[in-house]
Specification:
Structural class: mainly beta
Helix content: under 10%
Oligomer: single chain
Strand content: over 45%
């Protein structure tokens, strides 16, 4: 895509979308979570958590319409969920509380779901004009901060699995990450 056509795109969402995948010893995904802090979007603002665990997709938010859009428009297109059995979720209306900073990590609570992320490894800019979502090509820019550790619990019970950390000392990667200054354009 040419620079001029990318600059003609309009912003559809601004906020943050930290996420995680936990794995078992054989490398199989045991849990996936997408945490949304939407400052502004074409569908409103608010917070939401999308959680996949044991073949069940849960979506929690005080704004069910916003949450349903986040899950169907964005999350279902993410590479991290490809291959997971993804069933149509019912959106649960409940308070979602998220505390996040790029120095310490994240703590999120949504209904009976608790998510913690810690051990920030790096902070760097990511940008692309070629992010494929369900209805086509989008631009995305954000600051990403991979983390060393993450846990998920449901109803007080820990979900099994661990974060996979990879990359190099200069550019560490992780299956769990924080984001900020996230802007999606269509």
């Amino acid at each position: 895509m040419s620079k001029s056509s990318a600059s003609n795109r309009r912003i559809i969402l601004a906020g943050a979308n930290p996420g995680l995948r936990l794995f078992d010893e054989k490398g199989k995904v045991t849990a996936y979570a997408s945490i949304w802090l939407v400052d502004w979007s074409i569908r409103g603002s608010g917070t939401a958590v999308v959680l996949w665990f044991d073949g069940i997709v849960r979506v929690v938010s005080e704004d069910p319409d916003l949450a349903a859009w986040l899950e169907s428009y964005f999350v279902r297109s993410f590479l991290e969920v490809q291959g997971l059995p993804w069933h149509e979720p019912a959106v649960e209306r409940d308070l979602v509380q998220v505390s996040m900073n790029l120095a310490d990590g994240l703590s999120a609570k949504a209904a009976d779901i608790q998510i913690e992320m810690s051990g920030v490894l790096d902070r760097r800019l990511f940008a692309t004009d070629n992010f494929q979502l369900a209805d086509g090509n989008h631009s995305l820019s954000l600051v990403i901060a991979p983390v060393r550790a993450a846990t998920v619990s449901i109803g007080g019970a820990s979900v099994p699995g661990f974060v996979q950390v990879d990359g190099s000392p200069d550019k560490p990667g992780s299956s769990a990450f924080l984001t900020t200054a996230e802007v999606w354009q269509r």
